What does this fold into?
Amino acid sequence: LTAKDNIVITPEHYIKSPVITEFLGIAKDATYTESELESALITHLQQFLMELGKGYAFVERQQHIVTDAGDYYIDLVFYNYLLKCFVLIDLKTTKITHQDIGQMDMYVRMYDDLKRTQGDNPTIGILLCAETSEDIAKYSMLNGSKQLFASKYLTVLPSEEELRQEIEMQKHLFLLQKSGGTTQ
It folds into this structure.
């Protein structure tokens, strides 16, 4: 991906993990559905956009895409004007699975085919999940993909030490995804 001044901008610098969603007011051990999480994020959209990082603009919630295989609904759609691409977010209130990765890969491919316009860079898919997985990072389509990312969210701001440990773990998983399954 290229910026106006010919500096290469990669999506990896615009994907945060973990995403801190303390502003939602959800207790650490609370039980909630993906729909409730989505509603809370929309209610607090300004804070969520700030947590995502620079360049994000909200496009739509539950965007409906129709293909001959059926109807699909993408939880949250954003456009990042710095990356010049659509960013799809699928919310998961549980640990990430290979089925989640496959679903997001399909959404990204459909979006590129049906919605992306001339001048847009390839669509990025982010699975925002309660728990990430080293095995999924290492053995799934996340491994080596430049368009698919898994990012953990935390509903409560952890202590400084817990946050440091979480960031290191997420950094390790991210490097595992992007390095072909090995980290040095």
Summary: The CA atoms of residues 2 and 8 lie 5 Å apart.
